[in-house]
Design brief:
Chain lengths: ~260, ~210
């Protein structure tokens, strides 16, 4: 096995590991919600075909990537392809089911799984541009995902802080929001909401520019910002960001020793 | 020290800056070369520009397909901001009112975290649209904001709440973005042995 193949395998395992951790990190939380799905099923909704109302479809899609815990360690291209195809199908299964469609975890997991599929399909390539191509695709995906987050906030209710104020400072019952409701005046909470909202929009718009920035710089900045989102928000946000962080760190590792 | 004409001859970008910036400040001998090298170094580090400028760099078909998919997704996302018909379709996605299940599935692949100003009202009696628009508290009605997919209050949150009382609940959704507003009204029937049924309604007449 030559050095470049070993790099591809290591990269695949690194990003797959991050993907799987993000996918299963809130398994306990989802378990209790799944019991709700089973006890109180949705029997009819005009949009969904009947199989997509079934919580068991979501359960199957959610547990399918467990096989990846074994297959991701294989050096064989076909097993890598199989692993990534399972990840793609699982993500799609969760996205189109009436019980689970709303979680952004499945969206980010879908796109990163596509990148893993690209990596596994191109595992045998020895040309010089494979690294550039993989990095470009990763940058494009990260940029597009944060573009989606930013665009949806370009509205008066976010720009004024009203949405953040209501969602977090008025409604959240987890720390530190009860403390802040007691400690800060209404005006201070509104101002803080405005700053947080505009800061988030600015950061996401900056991350949307990732494909137009130098590879190492953009991947370092994106990794730090995404990790900060998790640290300063809620640990469960790792389910959304984990695969993206792994993708950015993996591509950074891939580009680290290359002179630009 | 000879000044290399090509950035690759000077090694990494950091090394270029370390070597050339002090020289340009001290002696002003190489200002044009310094800025050219720095700028060229920056541009050479962007994979996208490398593929555009270097004819020898070609993408695989699958890679090109992925870049095309991502670009299409990005275009649609930009369309949300500037094209009301695109915006309307994505807002309908949030209310599960897409024109078809296939179209809804396709839109599900678009990232939409914390998109739009989404509000929900949950009550036991039908409401008029004017009551939702007036901005005042409505008696016997729960009102809250959600980060995305306001309809998740039905599909994801504590469903047993809908089985209380006579099992009949009215849920009203509003999503706002710039000058677009989408309202949806649903009647939810929850029967212990039969599960939940969700039906879309027109708003109650005055």
């Amino acid at each position: 096995m030559n050095q470049r193949d070993s790099m591809t395998t290591r990269l695949f395992r690194l990003v797959s590991a991050g993907w799987l951790i993000g996918w299963y990190i809130k398994a306990q939380h989802l378990y209790w919600i799944y019991l709700d799905f089973v006890d109180y099923p949705i029997r009819h909704h005009a949009l969904f075909p009947h199989p997509c109302l079934d919580a068991r479809m979501a359960l199957t899609a959610y547990t399918l990537p467990l096989i990846s815990l074994v297959t991701m360690w294989s050096r064989h291209r076909n097993m890598m392809v199989l692993t990534s195809v399972m990840m793609v199908l699982s993500s799609v299964g969760m996205l189109i089911n009436a019980n689970t469609f709303n979680d952004a975890t499945w969206v980010t997991s879908f796109w990163v799984a596509l990148w893993l599929l690209w990596l596994s399909v191109n595992e045998a390539r020895t040309d010089a541009t494979v690294r550039l191509e993989g990095t470009l695709i990763a940058q494009a995906m990260i940029g597009m995902i944060f573009l989606g987050g930013a665009v949806g906030k370009l509205t008066e209710q976010y720009w004024s802080g009203e949405a953040i104020y209501n969602i977090y400072f008025q409604q959240k019952t987890t720390w530190p929001y009860p403390f802040l409701r007691e400690f800060l005046t209404d005006g201070q909470r509104l101002l803080l909401s405005l700053l947080i909202a505009r800061g988030s929009i600015g950061i996401e718009l900056f991350l949307a520019l990732t494909p137009l920035l130098p590879a190492r710089f953009s991947l370092i900045v994106a990794s730090v910002i995404m990790a900060s989102f998790v640290l300063f928000s809620h640990w469960m946000l790792y389910s959304v960001m984990g695969c993206l962080i792994a993708l950015a760190v993996g591509c950074l590792y891939w580009n680290w020793n290359v002179a630009e | 020290m000879n000044v290399p004409k090509r950035p690759e001859e000077a090694g990494s970008l950091a090394l270029q800056i370390a070597i050339y910036c002090p020289r340009s400040i001290d002696s002003m001998k190489y200002p044009k070369v310094t800025w050219r090298l720095l700028f060229a170094g920056w541009l050479n580090a962007i994979p996208l520009l490398t593929f555009i400028r270097d004819r020898r760099a070609t993408m695989s078909r699958f890679g090109a397909l992925l870049v095309g998919l991502v670009s299409l997704a990005a275009l649609i996302l930009v369309g949300v901001a500037v094209m009301p018909p695109v915006r309307a379709e994505v807002m309908k996605k949030f209310h599960l009112r897409a024109r078809s299940y296939g179209a809804w599935c396709a839109l599900q692949l678009l990232p939409s975290m914390y998109n739009f100003a989404n509000e929900v009202w949950i009550t036991g009696t039908p409401l008029r649209r004017e009551q939702l628009e007036q901005g005042r508290e409505i008696p016997n009605t729960a009102h809250f904001w959600t980060n995305h997919y306001p309809i998740q209050v039905l599909t994801y949150w504590e469903r047993q709440l809908y089985y209380r009382g006579n099992g009949l609940t009215y849920v009203y959704l509003r999503s706002r973005y710039r000058d677009s507003t989408l309202y949806s009204a649903l009647r939810v029937t929850a029967i212990p042995e039969e599960g939940m049924r969700c039906e879309y309604l027109p708003f109650a007449e005055d």
